[in-house]
Amino acid sequence: xxxxxxxxFFGIFDSGLSEEMRQRVNYERAKIYFExxxxxxxxxxxxxxxxxxxxxxxxxxxxxxxxxxxxxxxSTLAVYFYSRHxxxxxxxxxxxxxxxxxxxxxxxxxxxxxxLSALLLPSDDPIALTLAFISFSGLVAVAVLGFTxxxxxxxxxxxxxxxxxxxxxxxxxxxxxxxFFLMLLLISITWQAVILKKALRTTAISMQAIILNEQxxxxxEEHKLAKETIEHHAHYDYLTGAANRRYFESRFAQAIKSQSxxxxxxxxxxxxxxxxxxxxxxxxxxxxxxVVENIQSHIEPTDVLARIGGxxxxxxxxxxxxxxxxxxxxxxxxxxxxxxxxxxxxxHSRASIGFATLGMDGTTLLELQKVADAKMYKEKRKLKR
Length: 385
Fold this sequence. Notes:
Layout: H1 3-8, H2 19-35, H3 37-57, H4 62-89, H5 96-115, H6 117-120, H7 126-146, H8 151-176, H9 179-235, H10 245-258, E1 262-269, H11 272-279, H12 281-296, E2 304-307, E3 312-318, H13 322-336, E4 338-342, E5 345-349, E6 351-357, H14 365-384
Antiparallel strand pairs: 1-3, 1-6, 2-3, 4-5
Helix pairs in contact: 2-9, 3-4, 3-7, 4-5, 5-8, 7-8, 7-9, 8-9, 11-12
């Protein structure tokens, strides 16, 4: 953040926050700031109207009041239309810093125009000055209540709204010497000091609430990820990412209730043990991962691939009749008869595959496994001849 951003987003007193968390907290502050913007503009417009009535009460020249009020309306409308523009395009983590800075600048201009009304008040009308004090201090108090997440807002009100009024009182006391002006000056300064002190304390509480909320979001997300990880490990093989036997069996039980065509394929890698013995288990593990990737590239996303043994796999093929299952069997047999490069070593691998169709070859998983297993070992014996 640059100096301007740090000034506008003043109010985070926890120095231990990470930069990423600080950014998130400031983003939430900006969202709250813009969400409350339109309601605040109504209060601000009311404050401008009250100031206009005070000027009328003090018999200030109507043309002067008209010029001041026109500037007040224009500056307020600038704030309104800019806020509408931001709401329309949306506040994002990328634009919220600049958007909030711009909104604060527009607001400071409008507040300064409002504060200039104090300079138009006649110096010989203590009642008008008292009413102006009530108006200015009241609006600042309302701002403190509504914008505790953004101290820059009520600080702007003090600078733009109260400073011209305090400066006028100080000037009148110095030039006229009336103790009334000194009393009103001291009351104004004391009131603002009390309000600002309480506002900063409330801001600290608001900031802590936003920080805790963001930390809670992190904890919920961590819990969600941990739960998903546990569920994944409960259903899938840690090495290959294929489903495990338990998950495969549960998916089969679901499939026979809802699918008209269900097929089972059993695959066993040929001569996998010599790979482990020759190249080591690490290479063997990589070979298993590559085989799984190869299989998954040739089956449907709705099919279920499971690792049910060291080098044994099962496929639950959904929506395929006997002919489609035969075609998949041929496709996989050809695809898995290939050479993989692992650690710059060419390693040839192939698989024996058997399949069975629900209804034609059995009605339970165990019956289908027996048929598919028999076909698989028949292929194995053929390869060894």
